[in-house]
Design brief:
Number of helices: 11
Shape: globular
Structural class: alpha/beta
Largest sheet: 7 strands, parallel
Strand content: 5-15%
Amino acid sequence: MHDSREKVVIITGGSSGIGRCTARMFASHQWKVGIIARGQAAMEATAQDVREHGGIAAIAEADVTDTAALEAATDAIIAALGPVDVWINCAGTGIYGRFSDVREDEFQRVTDVTYHGTVNGTRIALEHMRRQGHGSIVNVCSAIAFHGVPLLSSYAGAKGAVRAFTQAIRGELRLEKSPVRICSVFPAAMNTPFFSHALSHMGWPARPAKPIYQPEVAAEGIWLAARSNHSELFITGTTELFSLATRFMPGVIGWCVSQLGMERQLTRDDRAVDLCEPTLFQPSLRVRGGRGPFSHQARGWSLQVRLLALRMKISDAIRGMFSKRG
């Protein structure tokens, strides 16, 4: 990010949840924001958010599992906004239910969107960034990548694959001595429309496991990841502790996770039931915001993110002092 022109970010899955909040975050820093998703109305709503937060927006409709459509959407956004500096793979979907209750085509669809969609986006982003000689890719992973959770087998498998894939690509970029950077970020449970959109075989809609955070926390973490040299970034202390515990106390964590049965992962809340609209095979007919129906239980900040932001401010200030002296 060495030139003086306005910077460009492209976000897949940018029409709701973490993606929509991330679009606002970059817009508030006067970035140009490209949004790729399936629903036209939801993308237009996000574009309006971007403009209200001081950014310039471009939208392009594509399913991340369709490589040709994703390439065409990317070309359209670059033609409108300019070369891409940051690419964020944020598209994902999930199914709640016993593995034996999940149909093969449903399991495949979660894998295609959540994992293969990230692979497709990374491939396209790398093609552009290698040519221009710079760029940063942020793959939105999950704490579930460190240990699978019962009733979420398809999503857990996909996010575990995203983490390993990102590590492999990072190694290849280092071998190439490439200036392009790639990072995984690991949010904890976020209060997003994901749970309203997830297909549930539990009889009731899904809900996040506590502690829950607002998606703006994840958006700030993604913003920091895009500007840092982190290979992996934990967006909350909860996620980092979970990662450490799975490494040093795998048996204990395995037992604890096994206690997350069906009752602890479903909700009978009337508002959550009203908002339930599975979008596994088709986009939502409603325009969703960044947040889901669990704001009354969600935390609006993360000490982990605040400390990282403070550290980056101090580093920027020190670099600024030395550049002035030079």
